[in-house]
Amino acid sequence: MQKYISKFHYLTQDLSGRSHLEQVMIACQNGANWIQYRCFSKDEEQLLDDINRIAEVCDDWGTTLIVTDHISLISKADIQGIHIEDMNADFKSIRKEIGPDKTLGASANTIADIQRIADSKVVDYIGCGPLRITLTKPNDYPLLGINGYLLITEEMKKRGISIPLLAVGGVIADDVDALLKAGVYGVAVSAAVNLSPDPSIAFKEIYKKLH
């Protein structure tokens, strides 16, 4: 069953001055229909408490809530899916664990990663990156740039891979038009909104480019 995948994935992040719940409330108030809760600073009990409160907000707004990596929480909270950042994960096993109805997202950096994900036949969308250097998730993966996405999407077409591909990693509002022209399905954004002087304005700017 093909699931709905938004073109704009908003990711929360650990910030000293704004909680994940506050980030979610700002995003929902400005039109978010897809939120990925991404937290690595809390234990499971704290995560569950956070997610339960966030799920209530998302439910009020009709917003899809995805959680990064914490598979054990999917049966304990009202969340719609999981995004797995481990590119070498066993996606078939994860799908068995979460069931057929939950959304499963995966991270990728190369066409080889994407092919492996596609071959699993159980992943609903791919977050591919990074576009440029990002401090939100420091890593040593090669930067793709706009042209890198163009090469990847062209190769996906040749191989008959049709999984929605989202650009992630340092994406800002000014990138959106070029990324869409390069063939990506949508974008995933955190710092461009969360670290901006006015997150509401930053969110709306990106939202308008995708809708």
Beta percentage is 15-25%
Major beta sheet summary = 8 strands, parallel, barrel
Low-confidence stretches at least 5 residues in length (pLDDT < 50)?
none
Q: What is the distance, rounded to the nearest whole angstrom, between the alpha carbons of the first and last residues?
A: 24 Å
SSE string: EHEHEEHEHEHEHEHH
**Count the helices. How many?**
8
Tally of distinct domains: 1
Radius of gyration: 16 Å
For the record, what CATH class applies? Alpha Beta
Look at the helices and sheets and give the structural class: alpha/beta
Strand order of the largest sheet: 1-2-3-4-5-6-7-8
- Characterize the quaternary organization of these chains: single chain
Remind me, CATH topology? TIM Barrel
Give the number of DSSP strands.
8
Molecular shape: globular
The CATH homologous superfamily is named Aldolase class I
Mean of residue pLDDT? 95
Q: Under the CATH scheme, which architecture would be assigned?
A: Alpha-Beta Barrel
Percent helix: 25-40%
